[in-house]
Every structure is written in structure tokens, then in C-alpha cells.
Amino acid sequence: MTEIKDYTQGKITWCAGCGDFSILNAVKRAFVELNIQPENLAFTSGIGCSSKISYWTKAYGFSGLHGRGLQLALGAKLANRNLTVFSAAGDGDLLGEGVNHLIHTARKNIDVTLILHNNQVYGLTTGQKSPTSEKGFITISTPKGVVEDPLNPLLLALTSGSTFIARCFAGDLNHITKIIAEGIKHKGFSFIEILQPCVTYNYLNTYDYWKERCYDLQQNKYDFTNKEEAFKKMHEYGKKMPVGIFYKINKPSYEELFKQTKIPSYKHNIDNINIDKLFEEFR
Amino acid sequence: MVEINKLALKIGGEAGYGIMGIGLIFAKLCMRSGLYAFMSHDYPSLIRGGHNTSHIRVEDNIVTSHIDTCDLLIALNKETIDLHKNELTLNGGIIYDGEEDKIANAEIRNDIRLFAVPLMKISREISGERILRNTIALGASVALFDIDLELLFNILKENFNKKGEKTVKMNIDAARKGYEFIKNNYKKEFRNKIVKKERKNLILLTGNEAISIAAIKAGLKFHCQYPMTPSSQILTYLSSKADDYGIVVLQLEDEISVINTALGASWTGARSMVATSGGGFCLMSEAFGLAGMVELPLVIIMGQRGGPATGLPTKSAQGDLQFVLHAAQGEFPRIVLAPGDVEECFDLTLEAFNLADKLQNPVLILHDVYLANNGKVIDLPNIQYSVDRGKIAKDEQLDSVKDYKRYEYNNNDCVVLRSLPGQKNGLYSCGSDEHDEYGQISEDPENRIKMMERRMRKLEYAKELIGNKMTKLHGSIDADITIIGWGSMKGRILEAMKYFEKDNIKVNFLQIISMSPFPVDIVNEILRKAGFIIIAEENFSGQLSGLITEHTTIEIKNKLLKYNGVPFSPSEIYDKIKSMYKK
Ligand SMILES: Cc1ncc(C[n+]2csc(CCOP(=O)(O)OP(=O)(O)O)c2C)c(N)n1
Ligand code: SF4
Ligand SMILES: [Mg+2]
Asked: ipTM of this predicted complex?
């Protein structure tokens, strides 16, 4: 069995009190719970405060470009499907810079678990608005308040074809751990939004703010295989905010649709590939 | 006098009439007659309408380029005659539809022979439609050149088999009718004739095909792409072979996704490739640098076309050299190789996969429309290739390392032992930030120097690995004129060199293949000894010329530049160089 320390490395530079700490904790606890060997874990991310999580998890980590972490996960899973592929992104990262990748990767249903650290602000670049910032939210780039309505990440994931969609709140470590473990166990694309207080740049969506609003979907009767129900629940936003599993269905995952992915790419024997047959077509 | 085994045929008509298809069949026909050929196409960025041509040159020796004359013109519409009649050689001929397109005698030079074949009429008789006109004309040309009609039947069978027996039969009938029409109505021998040669092991490949096949041979396991001329054919070809060769081939949402996904696959150990054109490579640039930073192998095929922006989507150009040499922010070893012909597309692609692995760095192959799309008959490559994956770690190697450092400073070697996800003792986290030896983010100035220096040393190592493939000197070292060129200019410069022989002017040609690392010493050595130096490039500013000056301080005063989308022809190169040389 693995332990938390097996996944621990690096000198963490998040601000004290940042919601990312509990996310990192939960991620490691979920890995322990599922006994995933660090060497079988491919952890990709983009760029942002949130994306540093892959540097600080002992595994095979790859923090790529802003908005593109999910693509690394897609390639990694297709080239070696024996790996548990896990990806983290910020709200600017995933829903601004790289939003097209979310749409197209979700609809593939690749077996990857994606966590969105939604702090509704750009942390690393010191506090500009993000695609999920609430209307009226004042930032250094929106001194008169954000004008647009925020993007709803869950709805986007649902309409794009994710087969596992959940939300948690960074203030509830046990809940995130449980949901992340569920997400990893789910075969197919798992999308998990985590409401993450940014104690430095988000004065509005604080721990208290979310504590007041969040309630667990799973506490009441709720059928997460019902897409229309999920659609309705995802629209609940404001005084009460559901957390938990919104949607979960079974569907063949992308990598399984390719017979060539059965064996990891690097294990294919590529010495002396015979191409005589190929030339025949050109004679 | 009849010319044996040396001819040029041009086929012209409206886009959508199967001009390229017929050109390909004719080239194959000559190849199966034991001859070499070069097949070029000119087409607009339209699916239907617009003027299309296919040009096939056939000889008893390897043919390296198109030329701007033809001996026979197949005109599937009147426009073709108007546009190309002046390209006909003395006593050349035109096959056209005498009933549909009326030609006044005064329009045509009187040495030219007109072969009025009722293409439409015959086509309607056989199929009720106009679709067979090209096959009928092809049959007619086969009669004029005295090519074995059975060979044509065989190719038509292979070609149309998929469409069913009826289509095969109609095409064979069409070819026979065209053939017989000429044999019955035009008894006098034509100016060119094919006499079969016993030459085996010839194949007809485009640059894109050569690259794709070489990639498969090299052990490509992961290819993704977003379609863009002139590289789309690589995606379609590889998709058709994906299952047979165990390759994951994907069309993704955009080029940014393409390169990042390929890097994810490369990270976990798959030999990976992407292919695009300038516009797509603009989108890939940031991740090009990422590959350099995290030290991952990747082969990038970058096909040039006229730019900027959408530019001339189907026309050849060499305007992206300086772009790819500087693409992405910051400094990292950019490895850029420019093959000059189909054979080099094949060779360098094989090489690129080993290089990328050995250098743990992206390797970019720069080609263009002319090279990507045009077909060349070559001798079946004699392949001597062994896969070298460089310093990918074996489990035992990692077991013996106590403190694995993926980015070890290492003063002796610029490339570090690389573990793959899944290996027990090789854990590391990498990232696009500057990092320390373990891969952790570091802004320490001392560390930065060590990391930069080790990465940049790869350029020297690449020089060693590429070795004498960096340049080629064609012709002898002492020459009156030295022509410098790169990429697809190669074939045309080689052809132009032949024309100088009769003038008693000695010409050699310095072909630069490795653009980065740049072959400074060799280029210096050759150019300092050279007589009259001229550079020929298909761009506005003389991009290779600038590169040479940057590396050698030698300024190249004579530049032959073209950027109108029409490829240089060998005679154009010859004429212009000759006139400049006299001055
Ligand atoms: C192409 C590109 N554009 C911009 C940036 C600068 N940048 C880095 S992180 C970031 C946004 C961070 O916000 P978010 O993704 O929400 O992550 P957080 O820091 O809030 O966790 C930006 C704009 C970049 N690194 N790359
Ligand atoms: S800026 Fe915000 S998101 Fe970034 S580390 Fe600090 S609290 Fe966390
Ligand atoms: Mg954010």
C-alpha cells in the first residue's frame, strides 16, 4: 500500500490558506485510497497557481503550456493506457486559453480525470478576471466590475460529452477525496470542478461564501444517470450550490477504440519494420 | 527524327475533370515501361472550376524536375490550348476534341500537329456521359507514343477495381477507342516514342508519400494532424496504414492540440510526428519551444506554401525558412533539415526520428508544395536503417541510479538518461518553467546557466550526428559558377546545370540541407574558393542568403528570387544565371 509521503515532493509556494492545499491533499489521499503506484501515475497540468500541483506530486508529472495540459494527458493515455492519467487546470487555463480542448477531449471520452481548480480569478498573473468570475466582480483588469455572465463549467462539460461530472468545495477535504477517487475509478472522461478559494485575489468567493451555499447532491434522492436532471441541477447557482456527482454514465472509453493501444507504444518492436508491401502500391 | 524515351506530356482542363489522376496513370505507364519520370501538378485552391494541369516528363535517366515545354498537349478544353500552345516543342502535337473545340488554323504554329479526337462523342457512346474524355485522350496519347496498350489496361484495372467491373470496362473501352482512333486516322509517326526497357524496382513517390513511408519504417507510433495543404496527404496516407502498423493516427481540433497531444505521447515513449504548413506551425510554435524545454523528441513536418496568412494555398514557396529558424520565444536548439527531393524526404525522415531521440529534442523537416505533391520515379530505396532511441533508460539502468536526475547538469554529455512514465525508479516532474536537475521550478541564475548551456550544446552534437548530410556539393569543386540552393530547388538546379555543359561553363551547386545547425565550415570553405556565386530561392528576401551571411559574413550579391507562386523552371534558372554571369 502506498502512503501520502510516497507522493510528496517539492517546495510549495502557494499563499498560506490557498484552497489548492486541500486539493493537493485530497489528490494524494485519493491516490493512496486507490493504491496507485507513483510510477504508474501520469499527472499533467497547464500553467497557473493551480497547475503547479503536478510539480508537487511525486509521480511522472508534466506541467506544459497554459491551457494545454489536457492535451498532454490525451497523448499520454493513448500512448500508454496502462497509466492512470490525471490532469489539473485553472479556470483561466481550461476555460479561457484552452477551452476548445476541453470540448473536444471530453467528447472523446478518453479515460482521463480532470480537476478544475475554479477560483474564479487569475491567481498566478495577480488577480485579473477569469471566465468564471461573477458578474460585477472587481479585479485589476475590470475596475468597474466584470461585465459578462460567468461561464458554467459543468454545463460545458455535460454538453461536450463528459461521462462523469462532479463538483466539490475545497473546504471539504473528505468530500473531494471521495469524489476524486470516484472520478479516477470511472472509465472515461471525468470532469471535476473544485470551488477553490483564492485568499489573495478573490475577496468574494471565500470559504465562508461557499460553506453557506454548498449542499451535497447525494444527500437527497438524485439520479445521476439522468441527463435532463443533471442539466437542471447544473443551473442551480446562487443562494444554494449543489456539490457531488451530477452525472455519470458508462460508455466505451476512447483509448479502447484503438486496437493499437493495447500494448503501450514504447513496447512495440520497431526494429526492422517491413515496408515492402507499402512500396508495392507505388510500382 | 523520332526521339526515343524522352518526352514531356502536359494535360490540361478544368479542375474536377481528373487531370491529376490521368497524369498519375501516364507516369506509372512510363515507369512500367522501365523509364524514369517526374510528374508535376499545378492547380488552384478550388474543388471545381479553375484551370488544372499535370505535366509528366519521361526519360531513360532519373528525372529531377519539370520543364516548361511539352511535346504533346492533351487539351480537355479550349482554354488549355490557348494557355499552353506556346510551350509545345517543334513538331509537337495537341490532342483535343475536334468537334467541341474549334481551332482556327492561324492560331497554331504550323509545325504543330493537331489530333482531333471526338472525346465527347466517344465518351457519350460508351457511358452516356462526359466522364471518360480523359481516359480516351490517354488512350490516344498511348497510341502516339507507341506505348504498350496492355500496360494501360492493367493500370486502369487496378485503378478502377474499387469502383466495380462496369467502371473498369468502360475505362478500358474508352482507352481502346482513343488508341484506335489515332492508329486509324493518324498514320505518320509522332515525334516521340517509348521503347520498353528492362528496368525493375522503380517506384513513383511524392515527397509526402516518401515522408509517410519513412516514418512508418522508423517506427512511428503516434501521428496527429489538422489538415492543411501541402501536408494533408500525410494524414490521409497514415490513417490508411494505422491499423496495419499499430500507429495511433488522429485528426484533432487544431494544431495547438496536435503538437501538445503528440508531446504527451512522446513523453510516454511513442515515436511521434506532426505535419502542417506555415499557418499551422504558427499555432504550434509555443509548444515547439516546450519540446525544446522539457527535452522531448518530436518530428515536425512543415510544408511551405505561399504566405503570409492564407497566402497562395496551393502554390510552392520557400518563404518560411527564417520563420521556422526563429519560431517560439527564447533560445533552444532548433534543428531544421530541408530535403531537396523525394529520396532525401525519405532519408531525412528516417534520420529525423533517430536524431530526435538521440538529441531529446524536436527535429523539423522543411519541405514545400513542389516537393510534397510532385511525383518522381526513383529506384526502390536500399534501406539500411537501425532504430536508435538514444538514452531512453532500461529498468536496470534506473535501478542502479540512486538519485535520478532527469535534467542532470552533466558536463560531458548534453543528453541525459531519460525515464519513461511507468518505470519504477525514474520518477520526475517536468515542466515548461526553467527547472533544476530534478525538473522542479528554479529561477536560480547559476542553475539557469547550466541548463541553458547543456541544452544549447545539443546543436554541436547535432552537427556531429548529421555529419556529411548537412550539405551536398553537386559537380566538381572548381567551377566558374557556384549556384547555392535548398529544398525543392535542387531538382531544377541540377537540370539547369546540364544546360551549361554545352556552353563550356563549369557550374557546381552547393545544396544546403541542415539549416540549423548550420554547416558553417563547409559553406565557408566552398564559398571562399568559389568564382561567380549566385543563390536561387523562391522567396522575396533571399532567406538562405541572409542565413549564410549571418554565419559566414559572406555576402551573396547575386540573387535569383521568385515569389509569384510559379515554380522556377530549369531553363529560367539557366537563362537568368547566364545573363547575370555575362555582366
Ligand atoms: C500563452 C500564455 N498566455 C498567458 C500566460 C500568462 N498566464 C499564466 S497563468 C495565467 C492565468 C492563471 O489563471 P488560472 O488559469 O485561473 O490559474 P490560477 O493561477 O488561478 O490557478 C495566465 C494568463 C501564459 N503563461 N501563457
Ligand atoms: S494567488 Fe490565490 S490561487 Fe494563487 S496561491 Fe495565492 S491564494 Fe492560491
Ligand atoms: Mg484561476
From this structure: 0.98
